[in-house]
Amino acid sequence: MNLLIVNPNITPGVTTLIEAEACRVAHADTHIEMATAASGVAYIETRFEALLGAYAAATIAGERYGRYDALMVAAFGDPGLLELREVLDVPVVGMTEAALMTAGQMGQRIGIIAISRRITAWYRECVDRYGMLGRLAGIRHLDRPLRDPSTVQQDHGARLVELSREAVEQDGADVLILAGAPLAGLARGVAGELSVPVVDGVSSAVCQAETLARLKPIQPTAGSFAKPPAKPRVGLPESGIGRLLAR
Amino acid sequence: MNLLIVNPNITPGVTTLIEAEACRVAHADTHIEMATAASGVAYIETRFEALLGAYAAATIAGERYGRYDALMVAAFGDPGLLELREVLDVPVVGMTEAALMTAGQMGQRIGIIAISRRITAWYRECVDRYGMLGRLAGIRHLDRPLRDPSTVQQDHGARLVELSREAVEQDGADVLILAGAPLAGLARGVAGELSVPVVDGVSSAVCQAETLARLKPIQPTAGSFAKPPAKPRVGLPESGIGRLLAR
Amino acid sequence: MNLLIVNPNITPGVTTLIEAEACRVAHADTHIEMATAASGVAYIETRFEALLGAYAAATIAGERYGRYDALMVAAFGDPGLLELREVLDVPVVGMTEAALMTAGQMGQRIGIIAISRRITAWYRECVDRYGMLGRLAGIRHLDRPLRDPSTVQQDHGARLVELSREAVEQDGADVLILAGAPLAGLARGVAGELSVPVVDGVSSAVCQAETLARLKPIQPTAGSFAKPPAKPRVGLPESGIGRLLAR
Amino acid sequence: MNLLIVNPNITPGVTTLIEAEACRVAHADTHIEMATAASGVAYIETRFEALLGAYAAATIAGERYGRYDALMVAAFGDPGLLELREVLDVPVVGMTEAALMTAGQMGQRIGIIAISRRITAWYRECVDRYGMLGRLAGIRHLDRPLRDPSTVQQDHGARLVELSREAVEQDGADVLILAGAPLAGLARGVAGELSVPVVDGVSSAVCQAETLARLKPIQPTAGSFAKPPAKPRVGLPESGIGRLLAR
Amino acid sequence: MNLLIVNPNITPGVTTLIEAEACRVAHADTHIEMATAASGVAYIETRFEALLGAYAAATIAGERYGRYDALMVAAFGDPGLLELREVLDVPVVGMTEAALMTAGQMGQRIGIIAISRRITAWYRECVDRYGMLGRLAGIRHLDRPLRDPSTVQQDHGARLVELSREAVEQDGADVLILAGAPLAGLARGVAGELSVPVVDGVSSAVCQAETLARLKPIQPTAGSFAKPPAKPRVGLPESGIGRLLAR
Amino acid sequence: MNLLIVNPNITPGVTTLIEAEACRVAHADTHIEMATAASGVAYIETRFEALLGAYAAATIAGERYGRYDALMVAAFGDPGLLELREVLDVPVVGMTEAALMTAGQMGQRIGIIAISRRITAWYRECVDRYGMLGRLAGIRHLDRPLRDPSTVQQDHGARLVELSREAVEQDGADVLILAGAPLAGLARGVAGELSVPVVDGVSSAVCQAETLARLKPIQPTAGSFAKPPAKPRVGLPESGIGRLLAR
């Protein structure tokens, strides 16, 4: 299948990190195509930035419509995920949702490790939207300015491991998620230093996309993920975001 | 004060309804300015449509930045409300949030009356985002296609009253919200036919905006509603949405 | 309108603090009348003391019945608020409820600063009664004996600011409430020292009372805030608390 | 031990019903003393009426202070229960709390049968205050005016059994509580007609009072049930309610 | 990989149904081995029956220890799932957990269709254990005696489709789970008759087992899924259940 | 009545501790019979160990069926409690459930003191199963290896008191439960050193068993605690666990 992975921020270096991890885990017959947001910010930490990312991701989803069998929103916090699930007729997965659903099968209480203090409120609301707040052991975070989202792993690797250990020892986490696209692939590298399983959002989302594609769920014509009712619209390019509302 | 009221859907007839109700309730020294989304759909019922509305509202907020003392997002479901609250340095209110916070001071259990079945999932998630799901008695809704969002009140007035009564008698609502901008002003008209208080999103939001403006809260420099950290951005018009991230 | 503000504790100095803040925020056409409990304790920290305050407030509400257009219960914890809302045919507001509903429109997670350790359990239950526990970032409190409820602001001002900062930095509060009538007006004074908005219970409640009065909700004849069913009663002075049950 | 049972409403016929059931279940060495509120209403259905009942119960608790080893608040909804628990140095039990804690050991989901529609909101809030809302299968209620609270069992016995059956079949209750002092003793009579265990508030509370008395818990000097801090008070008869605050 | 699928009830016909569905969905390199409980009941509907099933599943897990790379507990309700996850050093999946985590990526509110009324309480508690009760739209169930668990699909197919439709139309489900091993494979057959995606526990669990195996999480040495601390034990066959505690 | 107390772990020294405390509190006409698990582990700390304990307890319940009027599962965490409640026609109580329901009548927020870090996850899930997580102030625990479960009180008494104090001062507990059968009787000894009531699981459960026996609830024939529907079974000794399913 063709899996379109959309990085909703504008940093190509992060897209590269995501692609590398996605390719490591994908099945042989999964063809991965990457896209980077044409508008937005360098990395997403807040609700407003997520709105920009969601809009950019929807634009890409419209532009490439018909050329993918599944789509992954590749930012933790899942900007646009539920929104796109309403209008696309292929499976749509997100890093947070996929990581939670995967981690939830490894342990009862889930710890999240994040790249900044500011990002934690948005993550917490995202976990809440999925009804999984009761499973959250806590969110721990880096607390220094980020030089470059593409090099967070190198710049802050040791501290991220330390935070992971605190999440286990002080928050009672059974399983950890290293959150945020800038951390794509890190779980693989640090697993040996930790005492509980570590989940990566990108590889979780690739696997879950493959699972959804394999199970071939029908597209809903009822419920809250059926395509929105037809109605007048303006100002939405038919070659882009508008195409998602066409019938 | 200057209150900018943004209708995030594209239907001028709905903007007119909103304006009429806003003017009926506003203080003499509140100057109301209306805006209608330049892109989007005729009325918002789903998460994806709300994303379009949020983006359009943010665009207007950027374009008119500096010309208003408070901003109201005038669609039930509050598209873009929390997002704009992060980037604006004036109070931002929404119809759902304001209606819930107002109704919550009239009764413990709140019933919502909605204009379509499809819209209810989005409303429910919105109530949940504000942590008020425990106060929700239920959401009842019209179940017939809407001819025109501007004439829902005339077309379906009797049925809306009937749904309101069911919310009291069967769901145990202490207070009702007639939800959705297309119902702006209806509460005033039907109050006499009902046995519990009825709250209107537009008039609630005008009053709450005036209250916030009067209390003059400082703009946060910490917490999750401080302005997002400065970082590279592209593709965001500085005359519009990009201006909201400028410093 | 005539707004009757009832201090449910017996300390006139606190009544004075409340009045001062109320007058600073009230509209020109709001006439404020103050009342102090004729029985009860110096300040309310516990459930039992709140029962005494609620009864005293109800007595005043009965004695002055017909002479006010709205009533404010002016103790954080809202003794008697929901009870009076059942029997009065004018809007009734409370400091906790009004502060929560106002603060909730400034940020998602709300921190409360309290004047004693003992008071926190009662506050927490009050927040819970309004279904807002999920919005509570935490309650921080002074931990030294109070010399006099009227001088808490002078005696403990610096510590209250320090607690406020901890609520933001350690509990993740987006917005703060300085709780308790003895702190009336303090928010105004310390706002400049803090990094998030600070809400005052008295000024919130005055604004919310004015809003409710302006919206003119009908008095319920159904739901749990309709007047209690007529039934035999004894021992309730018709010139006071008993008048509230008369028809 | 001496168990003081306080009926917080003013109807002696209900006191008689309570006493009869209490005597049927009490141990031989439990001496039961009854008291009826000197002020208040014929039966309690609302928050305001419960405030009156709580005050009346506290008055009795003060007047007879020193003459009982445990106290039962004998109205479903437990007016004054948590309040009195703060100030008394003997165990205090309530019909709702005791019934829930007892029924909770017979089944997971608890159905409540109530005597009027109006009373259900107050009951629901009471269950919520004890954190047991997640265990509540539902509340079903009579829907006709009550002639006399003392004769509800005779007047509406068949309907109460019918409601009980619906609670099992439609709400999924594992166990039932026949709620309200006017139903004291009914569980005994109708158990044979029902398919799940039926719990009576009075007999539950007698047993729980005996249990608490037997376990001899120390009186707290910390936590939220320690005696309130000493402070000035006025208008509280030292021979009655004021005695509860004396040291 | 070798996937051991354990049917915790004693009915070989159900094992056959499970195997058929598992083989339809499994990857080519997944080798499936089936096992049926040697003790227990014909189908599991209650907590006590689930205890028997959990014990039987653990016995099989011990007897075949070392011969599988992942284990699936193949009864909805997941008897023994969390328990086995503590003691096995390979991934362990369950039908309910896997179905919920999969369905949760297709829609927000999940409806469950069950084979008997009695089974629903156990299912509900299972959903609750995973913290997903807030996502549950409802559980609908057959209400007639089951002739034979192996033929439920043939005997009650039309009614199951009808219940599915009610779950969408009346409970607001976005996605459905046909629950219970006796319904294995049915989703495939009836998808075309329904308006929302339908999830099957067996195929979900096979895919999730493959995902977990592919992600190769480390085995925890901390948290609540580390192997239990070494301690004396008796009466647990070392060739069976006792082997799971050996080190 | 005859009360069968089942220790689901294999350590006779713990059985002795339980018996001593049970006898101290039981009524004169309660005859206590003790049983110790014939298979399982030295003390139960995890979900898997609890499964072993539940099975062993059920086996004893079957073997001695007909010889007891009530049964107590005497391990904190209540292994097998809800399961046995389905199949026995006499009251069944558990140490956690009884302690929570008893403590819940002494204070609003309950602190639990546990004997190991590992055990806390299981306890927390048990509290959650009873819907009482909202009442939990926290769980504090010993953090050193246990020499012998029978001597925890002597070995760690001072530390347990220290943890109890922290639960009051730092977690805000109103009441404490000293959890785990190895701590049976300790509450009695340390009450004088603490500032809030302390509840013991064994004595609570004895009292609650006596209460249930006295109230004589009918055995359910509906709801989720009716006896499981008759169905084929194999491998369950009719002289033991199988007898519980016989009719």
TrEMBL record, chains A, B, C, D, E, F:
It comes from the Bacteria. This is Asp/Glu/hydantoin racemase. Coiled coil: none annotated. Transmembrane segments: none annotated. Belongs to the HyuE racemase family. It comes from Paraburkholderia silvatlantica. GO terms for molecular function: amino-acid racemase activity. InterPro entries: Asp/Glu/hydantoin_racemase (IPR015942), Hydantoin_racemase-like (IPR052186), Iso_Racemase_Enz_sf (IPR053714). Residues 220-247 are annotated as: Disordered.
